[in-house]
Design goal:
Largest sheet of chain A: 5 strands, mixed
Order of helices and strands of chain A: HEHEHEHEEHEEH
Oligomer: homodimer
Number of helices of chain A: 6
CATH class of the largest domain in chain A: Alpha Beta
Strand order of the largest sheet of chain A: 2-1-3-6-7
Structural class of chain A: alpha/beta
Strand content of chain A: 15-25%
């Protein structure tokens, strides 16, 4: 058994031993909202947004992007589980700002071992074989952080399955301060219309 | 400003005020692993798996499914940010077990207001207009929980961009106890091969 697996199971043992009355929580989010944010290890949405178990849906992917899959999740979130406010939260120092589709496609074609970042460029240090399957993936990289929040709120706002009564807020989380900074233009686009 | 927005910002203010040395965390996950799990409000992966900020990637969507978008995120996770072990964690009492593509497509075609669950069936209580755009979404519902974990580990394991040295574990999180229960068949399929 790997060290990581042992550690995760030990931490889980402790969590379960102090589970308290969380067994009684209902499936629908009590506070009727959802957060879409990045998978980045430095982000703990429950902590930075003050969520207890049972409060809110949390959707995370690379970049916190409004991918088709995030939209699938958001549609289920409001239609079946009653959320009414959604936060799109990207963050400073995001890995998605450091590469393009071409960068990662070339790295993957070269090898499937991890690449290294020198602060400006990604370099492949691994050995092949790689795979060209990256050509079929749109990686949803970010070239401008505010714009990516605006674009994603806009994409969600204009989706035919997203009703006008939902409010969508756009934010950037600052990994240096822990602070949420609103992107006013995004929140303006995300305003409920009915 | 909505109550939810006020509460989130107040909680964030407090978090940022006690941010400590987290400003120094690096982008790559310190413990080199990733968790793919459900957006369900009752799940707090940082708590149930013992993660501090900076430790691990967390990817979440409706069901914790190995969607194309989850695979996009996992590829970025290992290739650029060096993770080597991945946990696929579905959970008991998952909303994704309560409906099918047809169910939600019909509900959405009827109205974009929330539906109600009577413990067996979803009923639409809202008013139209709805939208037929749900026809274009595969909702990745779950009919058997263990099987969905096995299927998802298998999909990730056999993806051409996922190298053999990555270990993938399959688990079910029990919302009644807080406990992680391994799905041995999934973890067997997910074993590293090199």
């Amino acid at each position: 058994m790997s060290d990581i697996l042992k550690e995760v199971l030990a931490a889980n043992e402790e969590y379960a031993a102090n589970f308290g009355d969380k067994a009684n929580l209902a499936m629908p989010p009590k506070r009727r909202f959802a957060i879409l944010t990045c998978m980045d290890a430095r982000l703990d949405p429950a902590k930075f947004a003050g969520l207890a178990e049972g409060d809110a849906h949390v959707i995370r992917n690379a970049g916190g992007r409004a991918s088709d899959d995030a939209i699938r999740s958001l549609v289920i979130s409001y239609k079946l589980l009653g959320t009414r406010e959604w936060f799109v939260i990207h963050h400073t120092d995001c890995g998605m700002e450091t590469f393009t589709n071409d960068t990662i496609r070339n790295l993957l074609a070269n090898s499937l071992e991890p690449a290294e970042f020198d602060g400006e460029n990604w370099r492949d240090i691994g050995k092949g074989p790689g795979s060209r399957a990256g050509e079929y993936i749109e990686f949803l990289t970010i070239s401008n952080l505010e714009q990516s929040v605006i674009d994603d709120v806009e994409r969600i706002r204009s989706h035919p399955l997203v009703p006008g009564y939902i409010t969508i807020y756009g934010f950037i989380y600052d990994v240096k301060s822990g602070r949420l900074i609103e992107v006013p233009e995004a929140s303006r686009i995300g305003r409920a219309t009915i």
